[in-house]
């Protein structure tokens, strides 16, 4: 097929849009696993078992593959020819990850990483964007299991959700709750946790309790005893849990602001002044920030006796109590491990704590839930390195899902594991009872991952033919690398000039120290010798869950939305390191 590009008024360049041929490896495999140019159902099962590593493949699996190809003219009645076999390899049934939940889901909640959002109601930046139910719906449809709502009083004795003391708009709490109810279990039946950061008076807390109870009904999990350490994702299927701090702290704060009380502490007052300054100068200086936003977002100071004073109606909601014990980090690390609760640290606080108390944090997170949230200076809804939290056992590494960028791509890749259900089992070394894992010590190489990038297709269906270059087809290249706890290594293919159907046939080898806490990053770009490369797709995949063999790897846009057609044909081989097998 010819594709014209207008260079000027009088000149048109024409390029031939060729057909993508199967790579030599595919031709060789088809020859080895077919008879007289036809691959029968038994031959296909043999291929799935020996090449694709699907040892449990059954006749139903092979039949499903046959059924997806029967509508094509290239499908012979007796089996697959080479072209039909190649279309299967590039099809949606040949994904690099299992689409099913396969991990043990009966362990306590603290034994899982949970897909967690921060300020889930914001549609853009942290200072002036719209608060809406749309980001909440989108997050749930993407598999997020922990939704954060900031509750504030409004006129007419109502409760709204907004980012306090900023220019962001507000949205009614009831609308948010209804959206959560509607979309909570659309893509995953495992529990949704709603974290409330409330700034409410006692009467409004009672109103919230009534809203939540009436909205969710039987979907709401209401604890009768302190049994959090026994609750598992499996036992909480299709349940919604509330996590918040008891209300006494808010009442104390209100008293401290009363005219009859002394003025705010200098630290709190300084935070408010910097926040107001940031709000006023938002549009005059994009880098302006308020340094005490962490206190505004997460002002959680809770002691055990506070829970006894919780308002009864509100107390009934709290399935996962949250807070920071008074006394700083040292006191936090001495909490009773059996008194299970959710603890919160900013990314800065966590990084500081890990320098001297890494093993203690791992020990605490064996039973308690740790939530890490972005620092307040991330006004653009950017994110941070999630591996710092994960390697210390933090279950809730909260991200701004509104933005995009490599940290968010890593987060999305991590939670493509386990069927994309939003819960990923923590590796055994973070859960050992007798020997606490030391995150500061580098892990030995456990696995060798071989990756071969054959070819790509589909961009001409997802993009305008002049999207990458107005005068010629794109010049694609692929960057591939390991990102993880003890690894950050990147390689790249050669540039394929002027082709919508690039062929690279390039193999790479990576050493992987902790495959359970590592992802394979794949980024495609159009090389531009006159400027920055143009983005052409990305995907990040959890290494420990990669299916071996030749796989079709779908690509996603900058925000993590999957393209309809753009994909790569790749081969994966993950084996034990020779050092570990000795």
TrEMBL record:
SUPFAM superfamilies, alphabetized: C2 domain (Calcium/lipid-binding domain, CaLB), EF-hand, PLC-like phosphodiesterases
This enzyme's EC code(s): 3.1.4.11
Bilayer topology annotation: Peripheral membrane protein
The reaction(s) this protein catalyses: a 1,2-diacyl-sn-glycero-3-phospho-(1D-myo-inositol-4,5-bisphosphate) + H2O = 1D-myo-inositol 1,4,5-trisphosphate + a 1,2-diacyl-sn-glycerol + H(+)
Keywords attached to this entry: Calcium, Hydrolase, Lipid degradation, Lipid metabolism, Transducer
Superkingdom: Eukaryota
A single BP term in Gene Ontology: release of sequestered calcium ion into cytosol
Start-end of Basic and acidic residues biased regions: 258-275
The C2 domain, residue ranges: 427-557
InterPro entries (UniProt xref): C2_dom, C2_domain_sf, EF-hand-dom_pair, EF_Hand_1_Ca_BS, PI-PLC_fam, PLC-like_Pdiesterase_TIM-brl, PLC_EF-hand-like, PLipase_C_PInositol-sp_X_dom
GO CC terms of this entry: plasma membrane
Molecular functions (GO terms): phosphatidylinositol-4,5-bisphosphate phospholipase C activity
Transmembrane portions of the chain: none
Keyword Ligase: no
Protein's name in the database: Phosphoinositide phospholipase C
Organism: Populus euphratica
